[in-house]
Amino acid sequence: MKVFTYLITVLAVVLIVYNATKINFSALFEGESIIAIITILSALCAIILLQILRVSKKIEAKNKS
Fold first, then answer.
1. Per-residue pLDDT tens over the stretch 5-24
2. What separation in angstroms does the CA of 24 have from each of 19, 31, 62?
3. Is residue 7 a contact partner of residue 41, using CB atoms and an 8 Å limit?
4. Distance (Å, whole) CA 43 – CA 57
């Protein structure tokens, strides 16, 4: 599970970097820029959810012992 969460986190960061290059700052909310912004926000949400999952697994492991 730990490797899976790290792998998905790395993929989300790669998506953020890729989509950051697609943003046109002169027309921020038009065309391809809005899609890039939405994708960046969804990747950030995925990272946050994975961090919550990782912390909850650590808490669960401590409570078992």
1. 999 999 999 999 999 999 99
2. 10, 9, 47
3. no
4. 21
- The owner of tokens 């990272």 is 47
Left if phi > 0, otherwise alpha if psi is -120 to 50, otherwise beta: which for 27? Answer: beta
DSSP 22-55: T--TTSTTSTHHHHHHHHHHHHHHHHHHHHHHHH
Tell me how crowded residue 19 is: count the other CB atoms within 10 A of its CB.
20
State the pTM of this model.
0.86
One-letter amino acid for residue 5 of the chain: T
